């Protein structure tokens, strides 16, 4: 019996930013936190909401809506922080991303992910590595390394 090595199923955490659903690989997610008080950092980039204390570590918090050139996040009971583990240039960095709500963890067959089309100015499409249709809607798969460029990470450090 031959196993098709091209078929790979990965778990993705899906969440809403505005009305759109996005996903990132679960292996990049450390935690999902309830919204808590965020301390503003003067002269930080516009997309950086501030920092929180996560078990004794300072965690930068990014407003994903601003990164996508949308209106800033309006906090609701569903707003939460997705804590991600990023490896950039052999350095591990933890970043919290504000999202409007978490939807689910979904198992997605990699063969179902379509390349990202040019989707206009609403979203910076270079952050999107692909699209997958689930039921009657699309989930945009984010490339978190492209979402946070090297310059962004230097700013956050």
Offer a concise description of the structure.
Helices cover 10% and strands 48% of the residues. By secondary structure, the chain is mainly beta.
Task: For the structure shown, list the relevant keywords.
157 residues, OB fold (Dihydrolipoamide Acetyltransferase, E2P), 10 strands, mainly beta, five-stranded mixed β-sheet
Give the low-confidence spans.
Answer: 1-5
Structural domain count: 1
Strand order in space, largest sheet: 8-1-2-10-9
Q: Span between N and C termini? A: 50 Å
Number of helices: 3
Structural class: mainly beta
Which SSEs are present, and which pair or pack?
Elements: E1 9-17, E2 20-25, E3 29-34, E4 48-54, E5 57-63, H1 64-67, E6 80-88, E7 91-99, E8 101-109, E9 128-134, E10 137-142, H2 144-147, H3 150-156
Parallel strand pairs: 2-10, 5-7
Antiparallel strand pairs: 1-2, 1-8, 3-6, 4-5, 6-7, 9-10
């Amino acid at each position: 019996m031959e196993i098709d090595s091209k078929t790979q199923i990965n778990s993705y955490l899906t969440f809403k930013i505005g009305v759109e659903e996005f996903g990132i690989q679960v292996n990049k997610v450390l935690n999902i936190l309830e919204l808590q008080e965020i301390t503003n950092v003067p002269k930080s980039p516009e997309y950086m909401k501030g920092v929180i204390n996560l078990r004794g570590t300072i965690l930068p918090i990014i407003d994903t809506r601003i990164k996508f050139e949308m209106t800033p996040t309006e906090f609701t009971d569903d707003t939460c922080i997705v804590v991600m583990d990023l490896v950039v240039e052999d350095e591990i960095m933890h970043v919290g991303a504000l999202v409007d709500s978490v939807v689910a963890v979904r198992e997605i067959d990699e063969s179902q992910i379509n390349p990202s089309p040019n989707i206009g100015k609403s979203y910076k499409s270079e952050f999107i590595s692909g699209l997958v249709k689930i039921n009657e809607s699309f989930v945009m798969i984010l490339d978190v390394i492209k979402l946070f460029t090297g310059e962004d990470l230097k700013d956050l450090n």
